[in-house]
Design a protein that fits this description.
Elements: E1 5-9, E2 20-29, E3 32-41, E4 44-50, H1 65-74, E5 79-88, E6 98-100, E7 103-107, H2 134-146, E8 151-153, E9 156-160, H3 168-176, E10 181-183, H4 186-195, E11 199-209, H5 220-243
Helix pairs in contact: 1-4, 2-5
Bound molecules: hypoxanthine.
């Protein structure tokens, strides 16, 4: 099976109900097997991959990012839309806002970051001046605006190692460094997509103000609850983009 486009569903986005003729697909890669679903939306073939696996069983630092991206590449996907639940460091980007991310700051610690580890694959220093694909970003932005969502054009995503949330001191530091949003998965996913030549963009959804900005402690349950409230909007945005 070949697909035109892929959706990587992050926290709170575990299914793609809009797809028809859905099939479970298992893709073998040198990094391991990947299970995803493939189906059709208005005649277009689409793959859907739940980043955290069935029942959100894989934490962010253990996601097999290389296998996931290689599986999408093997299926023929040219464009990838990834969703991400994020905390906000920027007062202008409040809970339930959508942000079409345009930059990242990498604070991950222990993740394989490349397909190119020397040897037969060689060495690659990939350019990430525009880490997120301009074309898919523009689609997402335009469609989100047409749907009257609160959406921001651009934002710097700080990627932490997790799985713990941040300390208020870390959040203060990230803010000084120019971060707008904080999450745990965009790196290395975006970098690997770039290495694989996929046109990849992320739609981030703010679920909370980050630690220390919000006076209350943060829970995963709270993140899930806001994502649940946003799920109809996310599906609508994805469907509108798939129609284009
Ligand atoms: N920090 C890290 N990841 C997150 C957050 C946060 O505040 N909210 C949702 N994902």
């Amino acid at each position: 099976m070949k697909v035109d486009l892929a959706v990587i569903g992050g926290t709170g986005v575990y299914k793609a109900d809009m797809l028809e003729q859905v099939k479970d697909v298992e893709v073998e890669t040198p990094y391991g097997k990947v299970n995803l679903i493939a189906g059709f939306y208005k005649g277009r073939s689409v793959a859907f991959l739940a980043r955290h696996g069935k029942g959100h069983s894989v934490p962010p630092h253990l996601v097999n990012y290389r296998a996931n991206i290689m599986a999408l590449k093997k299926l023929g996907a040219k464009r990838v839309i990834a969703t991400a639940a994020v905390g906000s460091l920027n007062e202008k980007m409040g809970p339930k806002d959508f942000v079409i991310v345009d930059q990242f700051l990498d604070f991950t610690k222990s993740r394989p970051q490349t397909f190119f580890e020397g040897g037969p694959q060689g060495v690659l220093h990939v350019d990430v001046t525009d880490p997120y694909c301009r074309e898919v970003r523009q689609f997402l932005l335009q469609k989100a605006r047409e749907l009257n969502f609160r959406v921001h054009d651009g934002g710097s995503y700080v990627c932490t190692e997790g799985p713990r949330f941040e300390t208020p001191a870390e959040i203060k530091m990230f803010k000084v460094l120019g971060g707008d949003l904080v999450g745990m998965t965009s790196v290395p996913e975006v970098v690997l997509a770039r290495e694989a030549g996929l046109c990849y963009a992320t739609v981030a959804m703010v679920t909370n103000f980050a630690a220390g900005i919000s006076p209350d402690p943060l829970t995963h349950g709270e993140v899930l609850q806001v994502m649940n409230e946003l799920s109809a909007n996310i599906s609508q945005l994805i469907m509108t983009v798939l129609e284009t």
